[in-house]
Amino acid sequence: MDSKKELAKSFSNKIDDKCPKDGLKALHVCGTHEQSILKHGLRSIIPGRLELKMGPGCPVCVTPAKEIDEAIWLAENDVTIATFGDMLRVPGTDKSLFDARSKGHDVRMVYSIEEAIKISNEVDEVVFFGIGFETTAPSNAAAVLNGLPNNFSILTSHRLIPPAMEALLNIEGVDFDGFIAPGHVSTIIGTKSYNVFSQKYGMPVVVSGFEALDILYALLKLTEQVDANTSKVENAYERAVNEEGNPKALEMLDKVFKTIDADWRGIGTIPGSGLEIKDEYSRYDARVKYDIDIEDSRDIHPGCMCHLILTARGKPTDCSLFAKECTPQDPRGPCMVSREGECNIWYKYGGKDRESKD
Amino acid sequence: MCIAVPGKVVEIDGNEATVEFEGVERTVRIDFLDDVEVGDYVLNHVGQAIQVLPEEEAEERLKLFREYLDSYEEAAEQK
């Protein structure tokens, strides 16, 4: 039986054998993939001419300042805000939910919407600031369909991955040859959701798991496709992903949410990339329930390169603030705040494995 | 954010299951799964089980990777 190390070496050799001599750029859109890539030093064991880029794969990072400002406004108007931990420190226009909490407003960290619902027994009004991609949104749909307390509502900030992948194909200066698609998003939406990329754009797509060997396996499949000049959707995470996705989760999403055009921090408006609670459940929509009144918002602060990093047009080390004025302890931009932000991950796992070997 | 953790179902009560994660038991909702049974492995994300996983031994997966890599050797030899 091979050890993982021996298998990784074999994958590396095969990738080197198949990778075009003039190079290959693979783009993934998942913070958990980036964590695994750096944690295991994968860029240091693949050939230097295979460039691994990260796109907008961090829901915390792409949440626009306007929506964080809305959550802060609610907190400042005596509503209890419950949300995932990473959302507390992401800067809005000029402050964060953490700043609101430090001024005495009731902002709480939870691990699930179920935990947030329990808070409704303790306080007058609670709003769950619900962010996340297709993996996370169904949990909120299920909670709505199961019925929620009258003093509970959701400030939705969900985003959909395939429209963002499509947007990247139309942004000037974004350069790549194939997608590594996110495994857990794909568990919900199925591999069929990526057919548009292979069929309309001639872009290969390989769905990947999260262990080091899973990612190397996906990279080999992608390299093989580019080498053979083919473009199809392949599943390299078969133990968790199928073609159709999770039909019950998709049905619940469809019952509760409608698709809307949505803003992504650093990218702008992407058509059909967001979710809004349908009218029949609007009593649970915090934007309907409260007359939220916020000023103009600002997404990217001076000097911050998050807008280029989120669109794979720059690396954290290209930014003059990275690891100097901007650190996880004192972040200037969203990519340094979240554990899934590219700057945060690069800061954490610094050193030679951050970039491809020569 | 999209991180999901596998665990073993030890009890089912309606739309909720008790799932064991390396010795720690937590309650997880199973709204999205039709045929989940005690003993199944499920993939869990923010308090919801999103998929039933096959009971796949880690060694079995390494074997599959090796077979895949060997298929390259065979294809190369046939060229």
From TrEMBL, chain A:
GO terms for biological process: protein maturation. GO terms for molecular function: 4 iron, 4 sulfur cluster binding; carbon monoxide binding; iron ion binding. It holds the Pfam family HypD. Keywords: Iron, Metal-binding. Gene3D superfamilies: 6.10.20.100, HypD, alpha/beta domain 2 (3.40.50.11740). It comes from the Archaea. Belongs to the HypD family. This is Hydrogenase maturation factor HypD. It comes from Methanonatronarchaeum thermophilum.
Automatic annotation (TrEMBL), chain B:
Pfam families: HupF_HypC. GO terms for biological process: protein maturation. It comes from the Archaea. One of its GO terms (molecular function) is iron ion binding. Belongs to the HupF/HypC family. This is Hydrogenase maturation factor HypC. It comes from Methanonatronarchaeum thermophilum.
